[in-house]
Amino acid sequence: xxxxxxxxxxxxxxxxxxxxxxxxxxxxxxxxxxxxxxxxxxxxxxxxxxxxxxxxxxxxxxxxxxxxxxxxxxxxxxxxxxxxxxxxxxxxxxxxxxxxxxxxxxxxxxxxxxxxxxxxxxxxxxxxxxxxxxxxxxxxxxxxxxxxxxxxxxxxxxxxxxxxxxxxxxxxxxxxxxxxxxxxxxxxxxxxxxxxxxxxxxxxxxxxxxxxxxxxxxxxxxxxxxxxxxxxxxxxxxxxxxxxxxxxxxxxxxxxxxxxxxxxxxxxxxxxxxxxxxxxxxxxxxxxxxxxxxxxxxxxxxxxxxxxxxxxxxxxxxxxxxxxxxxxxxxxxxxxxxxxxxxxxxxxxxxxxxxxxxxxxxxxxxxxxxxxxxxxxxxxxxxxxxxxxxxxxxxxxxxxxxxxxxxxxxxxxxxxxxxxxxxxxxxxxxxxxxxxxxxxxxxxxxxxxxxxxxxxxxxxxxxxxxxxxxxxxxxxxxxxxxxxxxxxxxxxxxxxxxxxxxxxxxxxxxxxxxxxxxxxxxxxxxxxxxxxxxxxxxxxxxxxxxxxxxxxxxxxxxxxxxxxxxxxxxxxxxxxxxxxxxxxxxxxxxxxxxxxxxxxxxxxxxxxxxxxxxxxxxxxxxxxxxxxxxxxxxxxxxxxxxxxxxxxxxxxxxxxxxxxxxxxxxxxxxxxxxxxxxxxxxxxxxxxxxxxxxxxxxxxxxxxxxxxxxxxxxxxxxxxxxxxxxxxxxxxxxxxxxxxxxxxxxxxxxxxxxxxxxxxxxxxxxxxxxxxxxxxxxxxxxxxxxxxxxxxxxxxxxxxxxxxxxxxxxxxxxxxxxxxxxxxxxxxxxxxxxxxxxxxxxxxxxxxxxxxxxxxxxxxxxxxxxxxxxxxxxxxxxxxxxxxxxxxxxxxxxxxxxxxxxxxxxxxxxxxxxxxxxxxxxxxxxxxxxxxxxxxxxxxxxxxxxxxxxxxxxxxxxxxxxxxxxxxxxxxxxxxxxxxxxxxxxxxxxxxxxxxxxxxxxxxxxxxxxxxxxxxxxxxxxxxxxxxxxxxxxxxxxxxxxxxxxxxxxxxxxxxxxxxxxxxxxxxxxxxxxxxxxxxxxxxxxxxxxxxxxxxxxxxxxxxxxxxxxxxxxxxxxxxxxxxxxxxxxxxxxxxxxxxxxxxxxxxxxxxxxxxxxxxxxxxxxxxxxxxxxxxxxxxxxxxxxxxxxxxxxxxxxxxxxxxxxxxxxxxxxxxxxxxxxxxxxxxxxxxxxxxxxxxxxxxxxxxxxxxxxxxxxxxxxxxxxxxxxxxxxxxxxxxxxxxxxx
Length: 1287
Hints:
single chain; globular; 58 strands; seven-stranded mixed sheet; alpha+beta; 28 helices; cysteine-type deubiquitinase activity; UBL_USP40
């Protein structure tokens, strides 16, 4: 009716070269059905309208049973469809198979790919959405043509076709002229009508008068007369389809629009007032609503889903939201059992299973649940009397049943029904023909079977139950009252389906999905279920395999509270791959078989490698518990021993005994003593500092006194802990402080003292406590080493510019002086000594100067506060300071950099000193005065870590100290007032691929609007992405709260007028890039992440890209642009997008495997490289795997996300297949041309065109602003279904 007005893409669809769809890989099987036990339908890109109608037909039991009655003798076989003389009715056959899969196959959603292929649809047809009302008529017409000369040729006519009669009554002679019309659906008006009853009243009750100048020519009177026109329903179909005219055309504005006003429709309706014959009983005219197809969106884009009432109760209806709370209370009641029942394993296991939401428990987890329930394992509590738990479940098969190939146990009354055994429905099929069918006998009042009117099974169900929302692949339970929410709004009812209340269902059809399904389709569903189950078992087996590391006790010894290898030449651990679903006893038996010489008991204890060595935690004692239930994961270390001792030493296990690796610091007073200490741990970094350091490990539960004894120190010696936050060793500005442990701490453990790995412990004996190096005062020890009396070098640069980069100085102009200094010396004294040493008293008389630190690159840092000492100012001794013109800040002041309208890297910067208590407004005022700017339309922004303009300082009344501003921070004066507090102003661009949309003029897009009406509002730039030119078009700005989610940002972006032709069903079909300098830099991830969490600031430029399927990238999923090299040429095929999951393995091997799997190539034959657009070079990924010696630990695999490659979104990856292409050079002629052009520019003294946009300028396409034509919507194409000739 409206052609291709709606365009949407859904999950599971991407462009393919052959058939236009992507089949899910064999590696991961499709998920099973959800809790409601109903199957959805996959969206092929724009087929939600088809999915909604198919689900409605499926849940019309009479329709599907009529379809199932047609056998292969009448329809043919799909295997013969390619034979030239075979008349195979493909459409009904594919519809049968689809319905059978939806009813019987245990998968979350079924595919309509085979059905749409039978329609003759291509890729573009599947990705283009049509009107569901139009599809309803065309599909029924195609079925009627496909079923010609079969027993089902008239079943659509019998079920859906009704008759209306139009009458014109002559007011002069009383003659009535009638014309009868058939209808498949009733199309009712929405505009100006409050509901369905009102629309039917206007159609079939109200009369239209022909009078005045609009007279009717009567055939009986043969003259123009006054007449009355009316319409009535003559024949009512069993199923009444009502189409709502929600889409209209505004002739004044020349545009389509959607009626979103309130339009009510009843759950039950009586059509007697609208019928020609009204003598029958009310039941003949009574209809009940069972399906509502809903459209969400506007007239140029949207999404369909359907509310359906499950007449046969095939699904498991559950309260959707608020009704779930009483279930929690019921659980609490079930969990309370009398104590005597613990002796009865039958009642205990039954209660455990009954408490689960799914009413089933994994067999591997049942033992753990039992231990949580009664505090004891099955072996200790019940094994002697009842035997193994598996045998007990088999002996009580009247209560328990094993499902999913024995991996789950459920109560027999509540067995999960994945519909994998549809054998029972196949038996009632022959006898079901005796059931009276109100559709086949066209009697006015069919007699239903006794018992169907009042069924005891449906009595306890809540009012309005068995309504479901079928939204493509998702099926959820809803209340009947939720239908009323579809009366109005952008998401509202579009088609209504009613059924006669006389159409009762036979008892054999209730809760029986296999009812009336032909045997060959039952067999097909059973085979598919078996294949799916087999694939899921294989997939679970591969996912449950874990790599364990076994450490054998004979290879270890106990040292300093931790286990360490006896010999570094031996292999520390033995790698073992094991199924986590198997039990601890199975693992123990495997290890026994691996260790033939093992004698005695064997204990398996979870271990962990700590800095001090290997430590043991919990021991696996229950052999019947699976490794998964025992908490064993891949990479777990297991220690194999006798459970008591290792090499004769008792080993303490548990977290409380975790060893701590401490750095023991002792004074070094003589050469002999230094040699002795060097044997224990060696001299530390500061070999001449008078201190030696040694690493020693101690058990976490030993006391500090025991540590002192282990170190061989007398009781008079002091143990000290380095002051937190202090700088040890004395280097960098003065003596270091140590806190003395009081005598009471000698009885406390290392864990209680919060000592951790790497903490330093100073040991002082009595004879060293009063030396010149160590001074004890109260509970503190000050260590003054020779490094505390050193020097500072001061440089003076007369012509040096006040610039952060330090550029432009000449070596001969520098003047240096080495000033003796200590950590306690004031910096003002250092400055005076330096001026005197350099003899600058007269030169700097009356000139303010300050000291500034210099980093390793020669950049000047902020001036230091001269009121502080060297140590307090954080100045490290033996470093350089620069004597520069300028005022030194006081202790209460801040030194800040600022620039106007750009980042500081451009060199346009200033410096300012303000009080820490100054507000942002006062600071801005002072900066404006310094920059000689006027007006109040300015605000301040921070610089981020990469020195780019960042977030604005929103609170102008906040002080700089409250904002945690520090010395050397940089601010940017930005033009424009601050946005509202908590809101962001974001510029939005549209990512446009030239091949994606036809470019048309403005006149084509806007009906009758002047071509220049949008002059100056559209800005376009051309940029290169993955080697292909794409267009970035500005579409406007949005103002949104920083607490809004990414999904809400996408929704608001879609409301921009310039994006009215971008049609997506959900925000997940949009990809949002962040732009920096017209470059796509990163993809925003996390639909529910706030803009604050995504670190978006006002002024950031975003680019939206329309996708063909939903996308929700994980934090470690990278979008790469892959280019396959053309064999024998220095070029590449067009780039393609590849989403690479680097969460588990970010190495080149993982990327190579992903590419090999995608393109069907051998991973060993692939050579990969990353393109560097700034340098026009390619960086090759190495294929070489480093061999690590047995003595060394296994090195961590190379990560492509880190140095040197740093793969990120949008990077270009070149791929060479070495089997057919021996050329390992990835560079192209374009790369060489750009390098030559840049070399020529450098030779001429021009700037290097390193940016990608400038590179495009060299090719004749620049980033200059230009007005471009806007794109038109895709042309509307009529919907059609191809049907063969069967007459």
